[in-house]
Amino acid sequence: MNQYARQTQLLYQGHRIPGKMDEPEADALYLTSAFNVKDLDEMDFVYDGGGFAYNRTNNPNRTALANAMTYLEGGEDSIICGCGMAAITTALLMLVKPGDHILSDMTLYGETIDFMKMVLEKFGVEVTFLDFTRLEQVRAAIRPNTRVFYTETVSNPMMTVVDIRALAEMSHACGAKLVVDNTFTTSVMVRPLDLGADVVVNSLTKFYNGHSDCLAGSVTGSKELVKKAYDLQVLLGTNADAFTSWLVLRSLRTLDMRVKKQMDNAQKLAAALEHDPRIARVIHPSLASHPQHKLASEQFHGYGAMLSIVMADESREKMNAFMRRLDLVRYAMTLGGFRTTIAHPTTSSHGDLSEEERRKLGITFGLVRVSVGMEDVEDLIRDFREALSVYD
Fold first, then answer.
1. Helices 377-388 + 255-273 axis angle, to 10
2. Which of 108, 139, 157, 237 has the fewest CB atoms inside 10 Å of its own CB, making it the most exposed?
3. In terms of residue numbers, what domain contains 44?
4. Spatial separation of the C-alpha atoms in residues 89 and 98, rounded to whole Å
5. Do residues 67 and 170 both lie within one domain?
6. Rounded distance, CA 149 to CA 138, Å?
7. End of a domain among 221, 252, 283?
């Protein structure tokens, strides 16, 4: 390239690297908005699925993560989205049209509820929220235009557990699709597709990534449904970037080790706090006091790393003192990381709901959601007990 001027050389030097480099030990990172082709024939080959063209349509890092998620969730195909809400909204928009009806569990992540109410209903999609643990109520609410059943495996933040197999049978009997958000449990605990679900969505931001350093989501299901979701994603631009996809794939390598330790810690922490007089209630599926404990034992491999505690004293002053007194545990507007964090649903994830709506779900000011990490469990128990002393 010596025949070119300095300004031209600055653009090209180091771009083409000679030698074999197609099998690096670490996963390669493709930080490019587009890929070059040699001619129109190669462009046709790429557009026919033989390669990569433009980052919004496909990227090697996103494809690699999609392949991994397809394996983990037991589907036929997946797409990777820019965050969990991007996955949820893409999946729902793919499945419904004006005039359709959605049956949804009433206890969900707050912004999922907001999307259904503020966006889907605005465009003529009816949504009925009800308690999915009461199957007879669900069956009675089915309409001729019901197209989707929507639920979480373990609800946020009340930790209720739904019977996925029963819901799948009920939805399919009326020609509807069952969509399950598997964020709280991950495929370590359960694969909803194995139990009859049609689509699984995940906020990969949480346990799948587990390092609290990026946002991503996934949609997994049959090739037919995922193709519809992909076509919509390309138009909406809900795809994840290359670096985020690379980060999450890196984190998947330690998924089982992390989540199994977190689940074990959560079970021990729940048991240690259940009879503390300063706590009115501990909500975790491992406890015999949990209303769906038997179902969780039959449906899951483990009980999850999420739990909620309800303080006996609901004063804001004491809640603030408790949060400040914690030493290891910190408040975070996320969950699923390797460190233990807490959140206050009344003022965060479910803050847009009315007081009446929250009370109906069981969400009170004294409820604290806990995402349990990988610390030594005795250190965690000690930290909570010492912080609870503010209620003495």
1. 40
2. 237
3. 40-252
4. 15
5. yes
6. 9
7. 252
Q: Tell me if 15 is assigned to some domain.
A: no
Specify whether the CB–CB gap between 179 and 150 falls below 8 A. yes
Please indicate, yes or no, whether the overall pTM of this predicted structure exceeds 0.70: yes
Measured over the CA atoms of residue 278, residue 271, residue 373 and residue 361, the dihedral's sign is negative
Q: Tokens 């795809």 identify what position?
A: 239
The predicted model gives 295-300 an average pLDDT of 98
pLDDT of 351 strictly over 80: no
338, 258 Cβ separation under 8 angstroms: yes
Interhelix angle 316-325/377-388, rounded to 10 degrees, is 140
Cβ contact 151:122 at 8 Å = no
User: What letter does residue 28 receive in the DSSP assignment?
Assistant: P
Give a yes or no: residue 10 inside a domain.
Answer: no
What CATH code is carried by the domain that includes residue 361? Answer: 3.90.1150.10
Q: Of 309 and 354, which is predicted with more confidence?
A: 309
Rg (the chain; Cα; Å): 23
Which residue in the block uniquely carries the two structure tokens 């390598």?
Answer: 253
Q: Does residue 200 contact residue 66 with C-beta atoms inside 8 Å? A: no
Query: 């036929």: which residue's tokens?
Result: 76
* Strand arrangement, sheet containing 177-181: 77-81, 217-221, 199-203, 177-181, 146-152, 101-105, 126-130
